[in-house]
């Protein structure tokens, strides 16, 4: 039974990383919308941001 307890302890950090990746993936579009809402419409529509390399 000791082996399964060790495996469970090793799996905890893996699940923590997986959870954080999922949280970031779900939060990123919301953060992008909030940050974009502070721009003017023309600034928000410009792609790519900043000076064009062409």
TrEMBL record:
Residue intervals passing through the bilayer: 12-35
UniProt-listed InterPro entries: MetI-like_sf
Main location class: membrane
Membrane-related topology note: Multi-pass membrane protein
Keywords: Membrane, Transmembrane, Transmembrane helix
Compartment(s): Membrane
Protein name: Sugar ABC transporter permease
Record organism: Angustibacter aerolatus
